[in-house]
Amino acid sequence: MSAVPLVSIVVTSYNYGRYLTECLDSALGQTHSPCEVIVIDDGSKDNSPEIIRSYGHRLKSVLKTNEGPASSWNLGFSLSGGTFVLFLDSDDVLLPNAIATALPSFENPGVVRVQWPLIQIDEHSRRTGGMIPGTELHEGNLRDALLRNGPASYMSSPTSGNLWRRSFLDQVLPVPPQFKLMCDAYLMTMSPLHGEIRALREPLSLYRTHGKNDYHGMSFLPRLERDIKSFEHRCELLRNYCQRNNLTPDEEGWSRDSWFYRLRNVTEQLQALVPAGEKFLMVENGSWGMDKSVGRLPIPFLEKDGYYNGAPANDEMAIAELERMRGEGAKFIVFGWPAFWWLEVYPDFAAHLIGRFREVLRNEDMVAINLA
Cα dist. 139→62, 154, 247 in Å? Predict the structure, then answer.
């Protein structure tokens, strides 16, 4: 990029006045210049409109009636002029160097999207120790893998962890009605069909978990069913793309390899295995967010203040935490497929489990051990 590009940050706001100032300050405080900040408030009933007005001409803003996230994305994009665009949820935060760090990855004109992990924070802006997502992001030319394995076959960052090339967005926006609540799922599906994805290892945003998030604030089972519905809409997008391009996809493979269908299968197996109301330890890299809506009491392992606290530093820590949680009533430990690597990386911990306790289930999705 020879000239310094204008970057547009589109903030979508709805009833998050408590967090909005921190969000807007982070957008306005980017080290990259020029940046424009556009705020679309979707009919907030709290003090969000007053906060937005207090910034005056430092940002562009529209206060509109409530129509859902897609309407805010579409309007915000139509008002933007940046060569690159970032959609920022109003309860999240950008680190000051986010735009400046991501832009060099667009030197290759074939790159349509740069993504990065987010540091998880709580409602008080305290870091929980978790990362969103909890597994490594994918990158490269993912078109063939997407068509072969389906729309859930690669790991993406949520909304506030992506910078988009405008020329791509011009081709695919506005967000269609079936994705009005899951705008990012639409772009995650379309982007590999139009160019390359780049993934950064350095977290450049903060993802706030506060119990009222539109997505992560939902209970696990309703969220999973919403994910499955979104997955089916994404499959329809791919199906239409294949028809237009005379391609014959492996649609059975899409379902077979679906993260969401696998997670539903795991949930059903857990409900059959763990008695109702029992505590169990859930090892899955913090990516599932399973909660008591499954009728059992999953505890993330390792855990701190109720949140996933990352992998243990060594075998000794893992064993000590296991025994502590057993003492607090955990009756099972379950390893989900994203965390099967634990059993190799922590051999003494695995030997401790195998030597002292009984394995009750092992398949391609999960390993379960009775700790009684």
Answer: 35, 8, 23
Phi, psi angle pair for 61, to nearest 5°: -145, 150
Cβ–Cβ < 8 Å for 137, 199? yes
> What's the mean pLDDT in 40-69?
96
Distances (CA, A) of 92 to 12, 74, 157: 10, 19, 13
Q: Which amino acid is at 297?
A: L
Return the pLDDT at 2. 61
What is the dihedral angle through the alpha carbons of 328, 334, 340, 343, rounded to the nearest 10 degrees? Answer: 50
- List CB contacts of 117: < 8 A, sequence separation 6 or more: 131, 132, 133, 137, 157, 161, 200, 201, 203
Give every CB contact of residue 355 below 8 A, 6+ residues apart in sequence: none
**pTM of the full structure:** 0.78
Listing DSSP states for 209-273 in one string gives: --S--TTTTS-HHHHHHHHHHHHHHHHHHHHHHHHHTT----HHHHHHT-HHHHHHHHHHHHHHH
Q: How confident is the model at residue 260 (pLDDT cuts 50, 70, 90)?
A: confident
> Which DSSP state fits 59?
S
- φ and ψ at 167, to 5 degrees? -60, -30
Strand order, beta sheet including 279-283:
297-300, 279-283, 330-336, 366-370, 358-362
**What is the residue whose two structure tokens read 């979707």?**
42
Coil vs helix vs strand at 140 = strand
